[in-house]
Amino acid sequence: METLPLRLSPGQDLRRALEAALAVEGARAAFVLSGIGSLSGAQLRLAGRERPDTFEGPIEVLTLAGSLSDRESHLHATIALADGRVIGGHVAPGCTVRTTAEVLLGLLPEWEFRRMMDHATGHPELVIRRQPPAATGGEQP
Length: 141
What we know:
It is built from one helix and eight strands; from the N terminus they run E-H-E-E-E-E-E-E-E. By secondary structure, the protein is mainly beta. The protein has one domain: CATH 3.30.1330.80.
């Protein structure tokens, strides 16, 4: 595992910025090891709901966790609203960084994450595959 510390800037979309960082690194699988920060607005899909709810800031990100892939990500966050209420759910696009977000990713270069429909759950679920080692110039198969 390789670690990638990130500091996101005001105005960045939390989810899209993490997915973009993964793409820059050329990784196909990663986990969020730690994440905190602040948001000016959040889109979280609460348990059992079809669509995300909108929350207006200032908002503190208390926890951020989940898996990232080069195709689909599955992120959860716990946020605190300005009045102290704490809410958690699935991170959707539309979580805008207010002052900063500090995130530590664990890149997994030997692995690939995909999501495929699981008929037992009725949802696209994580499929984990080991990647073959990258070929280097002078090695023979």
